[in-house]
Amino acid sequence: MATSARVVLDSVSPVGVRLTTMEVTLHRWVLAELNTHRIFSRNSASSRAIPVQKQLDKVKDDPAYPVSWPAEQPGMQGGDELTGADLEAAQAFYGFIHEKVWREVEAYIKMTDGQPRLHKSVLNRFLEPFMWHTVLISSTGWENFWGLRCSPLAQPEIRVAAEMMHLAFT
Prior knowledge:
170 residues; four-stranded antiparallel beta sheet; 42% helix; flat
């Protein structure tokens, strides 16, 4: 899976107000940023509802990795992109954490097979940093979102989603 956006419903009222509904897939970790836009009506899959093994398989086979690897610097935006050995070290670190998390969740599931264990609403939280998330979004007002989230100052993962949404919208 990858970041994607498509219009699923689009209508214009008799007074000219456009209502657009999109299906958007984005990195799970930017869902909170998406949810700050109160003009949106949203409905999305719950990490608590999906069986752990299903989420685990998705995370193992198709993890949501960062789209950008910026260097640390003060402020909300990262610095220049890491390169060379620094980039390789950062990607290896991320890969190590990804593998460690899914392997530990998988081992716990096997160890507790047929026995009482933590509910999926708890176990799936460990997998969220590596999940893709699909959400339906409806709105009549998109301009503020485009201005904030299509900006080069936005977090790269939400910016990519916003750019795809804007392209689908136009």
